[in-house]
């Protein structure tokens, strides 16, 4: 008899890669580490394929890394609901699926996985129950976070060991850059740059061009590449493009598969990241990082940014984080930040060690699903 528990994860791709980035990571981990049968329902397979190039966006159903991937589009065909249902980021389950959940004798555990925030209120709202207004179902709100009283962060088993093995192996670094057809100068500060196209890159690039020491910046191909090309008045920057200005070398690289992106973060001295998933991966890289938060219309992101600044506790980072997110001059903030890089590197490692002592999101979800009350 097959006693494996079934989990369904529903994901809509809003406008970026973070939603599917988180769901794909979580789905793989639940299947690989917790022996669960996982189906991942996704409405945009083209975006998904950017992070997982082995995915075929033409297929409605496929199996990758022990996860069954299903195209999610209306009308939603009848299907037996899973034991545990994750509605990622309030993406609204199909009505027919909800009705099927309500019709089950043993009601599925229904979890709305929320966005990550360092704000204190998250602890009070984490795992709260919300009874369905009409049906005999309860939905639980599940918040990732940075403390024991939250759902934690996604962290795969063996991630820290794999990172350390890579970071402590000089030939792995050489091979890594060779695989990308590029080579940073040995004495250059290696930076990866992933941000929204609205990021205030022009002043920062000027600071890097006039830097006292060489800077090597790896730029995965995204719409930000266009912003940067415009700021430097050069042709579009693509994978393989190399632009040298003053002490700055800018290397265009491809948009990487998710596992490879981790290696990029591990290989650099400092990473510019954004949104939610790359932000967390930069923390696991145990290297200094600069975060561009996902901007919200009601400016709710400002409180989130301040909450993280308070929680992370590196004053040298605060000014650059604020400037990079629209409040201050990034060129000015960069100078103080660059001077503090040795301390920030120590702090980043310590932060990763501390966070890695907390239970991870997948393990917490599994435990919660067994006894939500
Ligand atoms: O793409 P994002 O801006 O996603 C955002 C956030 O999740 C935000 O909270 C959400 O509201 C919004 O989407 C809709 O940034 P994020 O979260 O870092 O996701 C990017 C993903 O892309 C992440 O999984 C890392 C991955 N990635 C690669 O796999 N290869 C790459 O080369 C790069 C640059 C990123």
Describe this structure as you would to a colleague.
With 373 residues, the chain is α/β, with parallel strands linked by helices. It has two domains: 6-153 and 359-370; 159-356, Glycogen Phosphorylase B (Rossmann fold, 3-Layer(aba) Sandwich), CATH 3.40.50. Helix content is 41%, strand content 19%. It contains 15 helices and 14 strands. It has helices at 18-34, 45-51, 95-103, 121-125, 159-167, 170-179, 201-209, 224-232, 258-267, 277-284, 300-312, 315-324, 330-339, 341-356, 361-370; strands at residues 6-11, 37-42, 61-64, 67-71, 84-88, 109-113, 128-131, 138-142, 189-193, 215-220, 242-245, 248-253, 270-274, 289-292. It has an eight-stranded mixed beta sheet, covered by helices on one side. The protein has a six-stranded mixed beta sheet with strand order 11-12-10-9-13-14. α1 crosses α15, α7 packs across α13 (330-339) and α12 (315-324) runs antiparallel to α13. The longest helix has 17 residues, at 18-34. It starts with 5 loop residues before the first strand and ends with a helix. The protein binds 2'-deoxy-thymidine-beta-L-rhamnose. Residues 14-19, 21, 51, 115, 194, 220, 255-256, 258, 261, 274-279, 294 line the site of 2'-deoxy-thymidine-beta-L-rhamnose. 2'-deoxy-thymidine-beta-L-rhamnose (TRH) binds at residues 14-19, 21, 51, 115, 194, 220, 255-256, 258, 261, 274-279, 294.
């Amino acid at each position: 008899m097959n006693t494996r528990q079934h989990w369904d994860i529903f994901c809509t791709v809003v406008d970026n890669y973070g939603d599917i980035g988180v769901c794909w990571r979580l789905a793989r981990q639940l299947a690989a580490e917790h022996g669960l049968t996982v189906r991942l329902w996704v409405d945009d397979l083209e975006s998904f394929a950017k992070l997982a190039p082995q995915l075929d966006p033409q297929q409605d159903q496929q199996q990758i890394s022990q996860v069954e991937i299903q195209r999610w589009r209306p009308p939603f065909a009848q299907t037996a609901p899973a034991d545990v249902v994750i509605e990622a980021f309030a993406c609204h389950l199909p009505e027919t699926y909800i009705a099927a959940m309500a019709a089950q004798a043993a009601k599925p555990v229904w979890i709305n996985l929320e966005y990550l925030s360092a704000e204190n209120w998250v602890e009070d709202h984490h795992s709260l129950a919300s009874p369905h207004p009409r049906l005999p179902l309860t939905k639980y709100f599940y918040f990732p976070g940075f403390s024991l009283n939250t759902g934690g962060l996604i962290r795969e088993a063996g991630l820290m060991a794999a990172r350390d093995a890579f970071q402590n192996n000089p030939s792995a670094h050489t091979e890594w850059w060779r695989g990308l057809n590029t080579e940073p100068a040995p004495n250059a500060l290696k930076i990866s740059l992933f941000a929204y196209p609205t990021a205030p890159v022009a002043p920062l690039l000027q600071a890097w061009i006039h830097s006292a020491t060489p800077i090597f910046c790896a730029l995965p191909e995204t719409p930000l590449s266009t912003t940067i090309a415009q700021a430097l008045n050069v042709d579009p920057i693509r994978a393989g493009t190399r632009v040298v200005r003053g002490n700055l070398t800018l290397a265009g690289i491809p948009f990487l598969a998710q596992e490879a992106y981790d290696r990029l973060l591990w290989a650099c001295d400092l990473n510019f990241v954004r949104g939610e998933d790359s932000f967390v991966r930069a923390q696991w890289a145990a290297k200094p990082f600069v975060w561009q938060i996902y901007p919200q219309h009601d400016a709710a992101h400002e409180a989130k940014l301040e909450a993280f600044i308070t929680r992370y506790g590196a004053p040298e980072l605060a000014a650059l984080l604020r400037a990079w997110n629209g409040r201050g001059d990034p060129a000015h903030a960069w100078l103080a930040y660059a001077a503090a890089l040795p301390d920030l590197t120590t702090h980043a490692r310590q932060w990763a060690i501390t966070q890695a002592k907390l239970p991870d999101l997948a393990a917490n979800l599994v435990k919660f699903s067994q006894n939500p009350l």
